[in-house]
Each structure stands twice: as structure tokens, then as C-alpha cells.
Amino acid sequence: MRIPRQRKPFVIPLNSMSDVAFLLLIFIMLVSLINYRQVVNIEYAEASSVKKTSAEQNLEIWIDRSGAVYLDGIPSSLASLEEHIIAAYQEAPDTRIHIIADRETPFMHINRVVELLQVLQYRVVSFVVKEP
User: Fold this and answer.
1) What is the pTM of this model?
2) Whole-angstrom Cα distance, residue 127 to residue 125?
């Protein structure tokens, strides 16, 4: 004779749901704290007077000692730099360009970028320096 089995209803255990929610919250908080900005390590030049600008809509051009040019921390050539500047200007004409150069960078490397900005007739340019 066959004994019929009793079917138990499927129950989702809710005891550990608060633990899972807490771990998910910690994960989201840690991921949001990660700084995705790429920075080139340079030694800033000093200036006698400093003017602070807003951090919104900036395009950062980094120039290291050897003359390598970086756009927002990504290595680039002058041709690609020109394309990015034109695209940024078309998106937002009030985009400010920050030129950040190492204090040991020869001026001829900085001048190449400045000449490019002159050709493009870009007028909203700042040189980033260290406060005295």
C-alpha cells in the first residue's frame, strides 16, 4: 500500500533578508566612494596670485616634463586634443579649459597647446598652479 506524501508549501526564509539588504547597502556605499578620475602625477608650478574657478564643465589638459599631453588623464595627441576641444565647445560653449603643467616642463611643450587653443580661438583657459 502506498502512503501519500504531504506536500509542504514552499516558504522563502526571510530571516536573512535584512543581512542581504545591509550587505547590499555597504557595497553600494563603497562603490560610490571610488574616484574614477585619472590623474597625472606632476609637481605644480607656483604663482604669486591665484583666482579660483568653478569645477563644473572643465576640460583638463595635463602636460608632463617630457611634453606628453593628457586629456582628463588619458594620453592623447594634439590632433585628438583638437577634436575633443571642438566637441566639448559644441556641447557647452562655456566649458573652461585647465592647463596643468609640471613645473619642470619646458615652455615649448606648453606653447604647443596654447598655440592650438589660439588657432581654435578658445578664450576660456586657465593655468592651474599651486597656492603660495
Assistant:
1) 0.60
2) 7
